[in-house]
Amino acid sequence: MATFTKLEDSPMFRKQVNSLEHLTDELKERCSNLHKGCKRFMGSLDEAYAGDLSFADSLQAFGAGLDDPISVAIGGPVMSKFTTAFRELGTYKELLRSQLEHMLSDRLSQFINVDLNGVKDCRQRLDRAAVAYDQAREKFVSVRKGTRAEVVTELEEDLHNAKSAFERCRFNLVHALANIEAKKKYEFLESISAVMDAHLRYFKQGYELLSQMEPFIHQVLTYAQQSKQMALSDQDKLAKRIQEFRTEEEIANVRMASNVDTSTSGDGIHVVGLQSYKTIEALMQSTANGEVQVIKQGYLFKRPQNIRGEWKRRFFVLDSHGTLYYYGNKGKSQGVSSQQTTE
């Protein structure tokens, strides 16, 4: 063995063995820390895998792949492809975690529990064999003259057996230490490089998947930008329409204020321009027996005949037959009254 140039039991040999045992103890501590880090890394991959699946499930529930109105409006059918991609990326993480466990975690556990702990077991057996060998040697050299031959033979045989057991334990320890020294040169490099290769394949799989989706992704982004511009344009048009409506309403209010006829009844207060009265009457006369048309509509304040009643805001519609409808806040008709005029 290259590690041990001389195998005779000597102080130099024992010093070399003790030095290698000390290095083995230090290596065991390093391996334990690496194994703990590997376990934490595996745990993070488990969490990442669960996170990918959870996000895919959330995206699915949000509307991906569904055909209800909300899902269609938010692009659910398009998102279904993205949901599938997230699930696929999650399986890549699970595969990486499995490879990490097989290529590094399990091998570290095997190296610690079998190889490194094996050195400790060999040392304990060697110590017991050395004590037994010292005792057998002491008994043999303590034999006095005149001791029966069969006793001497038995002690000599015990000494021989103790020495054989000691040498066997000594070489077992040597073999265990040499095995660790040999594995140092390839065991960790092989495991770590295999883990890096697993990462390479993991990112390659993700890159290939996303590369295939790249044209579709850019197509969706382009569509989203165009939809955004159209939505902004529609919002601008709506804002202009609202402004025009408010302007027309303010102009109408100004005109009405210049010529007002106010009438009060139990149904409420109506503020209508005199010119508006004439226009309404003319239209009612022209369509008395014809098609019903909406003459005027809007909000008014109404209260019951009881003077103490509260004023309530109601939406009203006056048609060409002189019928006045008014609605509550929930859009249901709450009253109808006839407003026919007589000549």
Automatic annotation (TrEMBL):
It comes from the Eukaryota. InterPro entries: ACAP1/2/3-like, AGD1/2/3/4_BAR_plant, AH/BAR_dom_sf, BAR_dom, PH-like_dom_sf, PH_domain. This is PH domain-containing protein. Residues 2-226 form the BAR domain. Residues 293-343 form the PH domain. The keyword Thylakoid does not apply. One of its GO terms (molecular function) is metal ion binding. Keywords: Metal-binding, Zinc.
